[in-house]
Design brief:
A two-stranded parallel sheet has the order 1-2. It is mainly α. The chain has seven helices and two strands, in the order αααβααααβ. The longest helix is centred in the C-terminal third of the chain and has 19 residues.
């Protein structure tokens, strides 16, 4: 084959042939497999997470200008946490969902159901019927609530909030928990 690959003089507009890119393994949007730099930030976040075992709950805010690696830093923390025996709940507050009550909390639980369904179901089984029913109102792919359980409309917002608290309490009983929310500025008010 005399098939030309790569930039084509006079006709390709400086673009690389997609087949050539595929051959060398270049795919747009995939992160580098190794985080470059950010050693100090990683150590600080890991130390804060480790301190939970001795000091108690802690909160860290990762802030910077757009495009400087906050999301990647959170992903690395989640990978470290899972490999270190932490329960990791991760999600992203998305602007389009900002008007939906409990959107971020729901996403955290939805992602947990996807990433570690067995552990999530074990935790959910320990919740009261009322709390499981409340969560079934706002969490996609939530296991069916117990038969005959219902929520009174007048207090369902409070019960849903308490149900999320009950999930976190149950998770904390199993070991340390890392909760990571990216783009938190877009979180709904209820969360």
């Amino acid at each position: 084959g005399g098939e030309a690959r790569g930039p084509q003089p006079g006709g390709g507009g400086g673009r690389l042939d997609p087949a050539a890119l595929a051959e060398i393994g270049v795919f747009r949007g995939l992160p580098c497999p190794v985080l470059v730099g950010r050693v100090e930030e990683q150590q600080r976040l890991r130390q804060l997470a480790s301190d939970v075992r001795h000091v108690g709950p802690t909160v860290a805010m990762v802030t910077s200008s757009p495009g400087l690696g906050k999301t990647r830093l959170l992903r690395e923390l989640a990978l470290w946490g899972r490999s270190s025996g932490y329960v990791v709940l991760g999600g992203t507050a998305r602007e389009p969902r900002a008007s939906l009550p409990y959107a971020v909390l729901s996403e955290l639980l939805e992602n947990f159901l996807v990433t570690d369904r067995a552990a999530a179901l074990a935790v959910l089984e320990r919740l009261s019927a009322l709390h499981r029913t409340a969560l079934s109102v706002v969490v996609r792919d939530f296991p069916a609530p117990p038969a005959g359980s219902a929520l009174e409309v007048s207090g369902y917002g409070r019960v849903i909030f308490e149900a999320f608290g009950a999930v976190l309490d149950e998770l904390a009983r199993t070991g340390p928990v890392v909760v990571s929310v990216d783009e938190v500025e877009h979180a709904d008010a209820a969360t």
